[in-house]
Amino acid sequence: MAGRFAPRTTAVPRQRPAAPDTSAALTRLWTPPGPLDLRLVLGPLRRGPAD
User: Fold this and answer.
1) Mean pLDDT of the chain, nearest integer
2) How far apart are CA 1 and CA 5, in angstroms?
3) What are the start and end residues of every segment in region (Disordered) (predicted)?
4) Residue 30 pLDDT class (50, 70, 90 cuts)
5) Gap between the Cα atoms of 51 and 48, Å rounded
6) Read out DSSP for 1-51?
7) What is the Cα–Cα distance from 17 to 24, expressed in whole angstroms?
8) Separation in Å, CA 28 to CA 19, 34, 35, 41, 49
9) From CA 18, how far away is CA 12, in angstroms rounded?
């Protein structure tokens, strides 16, 4: 199947200056409405004995 798709370029074109503009800086701060239960959040990520 080699050659079926056009190869992607690995270089990213530079369309803006490397230094970020300080006037466009945004800060997002999220606080949960109540206590955060990490067992509910991280429970599905635990590995079982079969892993």
Assistant:
1) 74
2) 9
3) 1-30
4) confident
5) 6
6) -TTSSPPPP-PPP--S-SSPPGGG--------SS---HHHHHGGGS--TT-
7) 13
8) 20, 18, 19, 21, 38
9) 12
